[in-house]
Amino acid sequence: MKIYKYIKWAIKIILFILILVLILDNLQTVKLSIFNIYVIQLPLIIILLLFLIIGIIIGLLINIIKIVELKAKIFKINKNNEYKVLDKSNN
To answer: Which pLDDT score, from 0 to 100, does residue 32 have?
Structure first.
């Protein structure tokens, strides 16, 4: 089991180094123009991380909506099954 612990740490270190290299390679400043009205000058890595976070939030919101829909279906199915059981017991 100890080998998995070392593999886990090795993967963490490799990911940290890759992210650090990504950050250091993308420090140049870029302009982000929003509808030619508002212009932001930020380092490229900040803009990339911003869009990554926005994408994660949108994905989570879509999944939350899907989960709520599925829970509503489960509730409806369970409610229908209760009525069927009650009908069978009355006969």
So the answer is: 85
**pLDDT value of residue 5:** 87
Q: Helical H runs in the chain?
A: 2-25, 44-90
Determine the Cα–Cα distance for residues 55 and 31; give it in Å rounded to an integer. Answer: 20
Say whether pTM exceeds 0.85.
Answer: no
Question: Contact, 84 vs 67, CB < 8 A?
Answer: no
Collapsing DSSP to helix, strand or coil, 30 comes out as strand
Q: How far apart are CA 65 and CA 21, in angstroms?
A: 36
Smallest Cα–Cα separation from 43: which of 57, 58, 22? 22
Nearest to 34 by CA among 50, 45, 22: 50
